[in-house]
Design a protein that fits this description.
The protein is mainly alpha-helical. The protein has one domain (28-106). The protein has helices at residues 2-25, 30-46, 48-51, 53-71, 75-106. The radius of gyration is 23 Å and the shape is rod-shaped.
């Protein structure tokens, strides 16, 4: 009876040790946050709000969510939201750039 119980206790102890190590190694997604901020700023600077406001707005909302998650130390969610913010911002940036280039070509004699 004790050998089965001892095996279960060892398995639970091992599992808890792994979970503890994983929790201790979680790191703040500082680079992801920086990348997202830079992408949102670049999209805003090129004028994405005028041409693709829905993409830039979504990027901004995701960045704000990432910042809240960082403050609460929910790093996995902060990384997820920062990555999404960066992707929406890049979509806004590239779409705006294509639109501006097309407008330039149309207006060139």
């Amino acid at each position: 009876m004790y050998s089965g119980l001892q095996g279960t206790i060892k398995a639970i102890t091992a599992l808890l040790s792994v979970l503890f190590i994983m929790a201790c190694t979680a790191r703040a997604p500082v680079q992801e946050m920086s990348d997202a901020r830079q992408a949102v700023a670049a999209a805003d600077e090129i004028g994405a709000q005028q041409y693709y406001p829905e993409l830039l707005d979504e990027a901004t909302l995701r960045l704000e969510s990432a910042e809240k998650n960082m403050q609460q130390k929910i790093y996995w969610a902060a990384k997820r939201d920062a990555d999404a913010a960066k992707n929406f911002a890049i979509d806004a940036l590239l779409s705006t750039r294509r639109r501006l280039e097309a407008d330039t070509v149309e207006n060139t004699p």
